[in-house]
Design goal:
This protein is α+β, with helices and mostly antiparallel strands. It has helices at 10-18, 99-102, 145-158; strands at 22-23, 29-31, 36-42, 50-56, 63-71, 74-83, 87-88, 108-109, 115-118, 128-131, 166-168.
Length: 172
Amino acid sequence: MKAIDNMLTNQEAKYLLDLEKVLNDPTQIIDLRNKKNRLELISHEDPDYQFWLEITTNQKIILKTSIHHLESNSFIGLLRIDYKGGHHNPVDVKDTVPENLRQYADKWFAPTEPHMHIYVEGYKPLAWAIPLVETDFEIQDITDQSDLTDLIFNFASRINLKSQIEIQQALL
């Protein structure tokens, strides 16, 4: 199952998200003192694919967590959760837009509205988002440092990451 011209179908994106993944380096530690942590993931189920799991924190965007599918020298965003980041969904609704996203066409997400970006075929990666409250994702908001650990573990579960993750907490 290979994407052509760096575009995926919605089914291919779901396949990639559902693949069991492990850390390429099982000793890697997520250090929340860093503004960005990038973990390389691989799948033993389908070794043709590689992934990044990225965790970005800064003063403006408290937390952005994303997974990208790597294809040769490029990458395609598959799923991202933003807390404290604004976003505007596309206005046009193609046939490839899933039913649950259609009502959010042309929606502006204020930085105070956590949302989940989802890959949609026919759009630039992660152009579409849905309010986090409309998903079954457990961590609906980040209110303190301990929420970051829960977020990372929940996101890892959502993308089918089977490796145990070690997290170095930031000192406040």
